[in-house]
Amino acid sequence: MSDAPLLAELGWIEWCALPSLGIPLLQAKIDTGARTSSLHAEDLEIVDQGGRHVAKFLVRTRKGVYACECPVKDERHVKSSSGHEELRVVIETTYVIQRVRWTIELTLTDRTTMRFPMLLGRRAMAGRFVVDPSRRYVCGKPKRKFKS
Questions:
Q1: How far is it, in rounded angstroms, from Cα 108 to Cα 98?
Q2: What is the pLDDT of residues 49-107, one digit of tens each?
Q3: Nearest residue to 28 via CA among 98, 122, 117
Q4: What beta strand segments (E) does 2-140 contain?
Q5: CA distances from 70 to 73, 81, 104, 109 (A)
Q6: Topology of the domain comprising 8-132
Q7: Contacts of 72 (CB under 8 A, 6+ apart)
């Protein structure tokens, strides 16, 4: 796998993986209106491990529930599309779509009321992709699981 090519095409929803978190497959809404990418996180707990903060949380998808653990990169105030501001934990992880792999920042939040467990925002896509909002699953469904 290589770094993302410039200006590959995506639809408004795509299959992806977060192999560093142990999530082999999930659906992400591709949202050019959102600056920040976010991931559904349940039972979020921040623990101190050897002097660094680590986020422990569950990610629930249609394919299963995954127990995840990742160092905390930051905490930021994020304003939702409804105008509600929330302080969120930020992590950095590997994102894979089709055969393209790169590192992105994700904020962790409760997306229970949302249709998809992940939202890929424009910071993560900048200079890599163009989005055709009339299409979905342009990249297709992966035929294999991704390695971390």
A1: 23
A2: 999 999 999 999 888 999 999 999 999 999 877 788 999 999 999 999 877 899 999 99
A3: 117
A4: 8-11, 13-18, 23-30, 38-40, 42-49, 52-61, 64-79, 85-97, 100-109, 118-120, 129-132
A5: 9, 26, 13, 14
A6: Cathepsin D, subunit A; domain 1 (2.40.70)
A7: 46, 52, 53, 54, 55, 89, 90, 91
As a whole number of angstroms, the longest Cα–Cα distance in the chain is 48
**Cα–Cα distance for residue pair 134/148, rounded to 1 Å:** 32
Domain map (residue ranges) of the chain: 8-132
60 — phi, psi (to 5°)?
Answer: -105, 120
**What is this structure's pTM?**
0.87
